[in-house]
């Protein structure tokens, strides 16, 4: 049972009516960070509307491939060989998530890994909203030295016993989330909820069910969409995006970090709108799209150096609705 490290006075008597009715605090360990990587363990703490724990659940998952960085998560091929496949635990996992807001630390990553696993199983995860505890900490202006889970835990006096173990990471996050939620409620802070879009679009595309086998660490890995070279953008680059104005065909757009929409689908939409999707960032780049503008990725660093405009995925989605035609 989680220890209550807050006082009764910190829990407001009048709870914001707009707040969700329940949460699923989630952590997944994976074989890596790429779109072809797989979940190898998952944990869920179900919380009620005020952040009190209802129950918890944990499972190993056989990734059907190399387990990746064993030195981080400690799960070897021998340990995972006898574990259930994701499709075997998909129903129980879904029952833990159903009707709740998914809460995670860097939630876009956990959501993308979960959504991809459900897409592979030809199912949908019953999640419509997520809440990132990093974003909530920013909303609350918590005096953290960085946005690592251990820093958030230390701020609330939560002791972490097994870092990078899904069950303990979920426990730590649940224990740190509860006082964060109460502080937000006490200050009537609007929770930074984000939409979760299941990857059902894969099933609507001719390439969705055409997998290709590649090798990774001696194990076969199925890639959902075949590699392909994008056609050259037919329009000249009109220059940089300007805030308040529409995108224009020919603009060079780069992406950095995780996106709630599958990256290749997002790139397809940009290409179809007449934009040039760039794999790197240069002085000619018109716009960088990232959900974490404070990260230290090479693209974000270069964008800062070059003065390249930066928008998040949601804003980019709005801009894609009305792309101006190329000059001439």
TrEMBL record:
Transmembrane domains' residue ranges: none
Superkingdom of the organism of origin: Bacteria
Domain BRCT: 245-323
Gene Ontology CC: cytosol
Chain ranges of the Exonuclease domain: 22-186
Listed GO biological process terms: DNA replication
Keywords linked to the UniProt accession: Exonuclease, Hydrolase, Nuclease
Keyword Nuclease attached: yes
Cited InterPro entries: BRCT_dom, BRCT_dom_sf, DnaQ, Ribonucl_H, RNaseH-like_sf, RNaseH_sf
GO molecular function (one): 3'-5' exonuclease activity
Region (Disordered): 219-246
Pfam families to which the protein is assigned, alphabetical: BRCT, RNase_T
SUPFAM superfamilies for the chain: BRCT domain, Ribonuclease H-like
Hydrolase found in the keyword field: yes
UniProt-recorded name of the protein: DNA polymerase III subunit epsilon
Organism: Streptomyces fumanus
């Amino acid at each position: 049972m989680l220890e209550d490290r807050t006082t009764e006075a910190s829990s407001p008597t009048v709870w914001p009516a707009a707040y969700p009715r329940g949460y699923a605090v989630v952590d997944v360990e994976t074989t890596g960070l790429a779109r072809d990587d797989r979940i190898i363990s998952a944990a869920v703490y179900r919380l009620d509307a005020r952040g009190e724990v209802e129950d918890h659940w944990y499972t190993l998952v056989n990734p059907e491939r190399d387990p990746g960085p064993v030195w981080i998560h400690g799960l070897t091929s021998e340990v995972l060989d006898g574990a259930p496949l994701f499709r075997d635990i998909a129903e129980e996992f879904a029952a833990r998530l159903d009707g709740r807001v998914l809460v995670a630390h860097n939630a876009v990553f956990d959501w993308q890994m979960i959504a991809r696993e459900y897409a592979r199983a030809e199912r949908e995860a019953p999640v419509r909203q997520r809440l990132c505890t990093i974003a909530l900490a920013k909303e609350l202006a918590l005096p953290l030295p960085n946005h690592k889970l251990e820093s958030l835990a230390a701020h609330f006096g939560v002791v972490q016993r097994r870092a990078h173990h899904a069950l303990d990471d979920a426990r730590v996050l649940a224990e740190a989330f509860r006082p964060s939620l109460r502080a937000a409620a006490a200050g009537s802070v609007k929770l930074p909820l984000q939409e979760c879009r299941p990857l059902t679009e894969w099933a609507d595309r001719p390439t969705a069910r055409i997998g290709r086998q590649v090798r990774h660490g001696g194990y076969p890995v199925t890639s959902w969409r075949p590699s392909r070279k994008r056609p050259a953008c037919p329009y000249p680059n009109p220059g940089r995006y300007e805030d308040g104005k529409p995108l224009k065909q020919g603009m060079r757009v780069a992406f950095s970090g995780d996106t709630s929409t599958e990256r290749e689908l997002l790139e397809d939409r940009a290409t179809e709108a007449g934009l040039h999707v760039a794999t790197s960032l240069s002085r000619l780049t018109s716009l960088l799209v990232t959900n974490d503008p404070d990260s230290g990725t090479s693209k974000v660093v270069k964008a800062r150096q070059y003065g390249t405009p930066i928008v998040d995925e949601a804003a980019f989605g709005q801009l894609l609705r009305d792309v101006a035609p190329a000059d001439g």
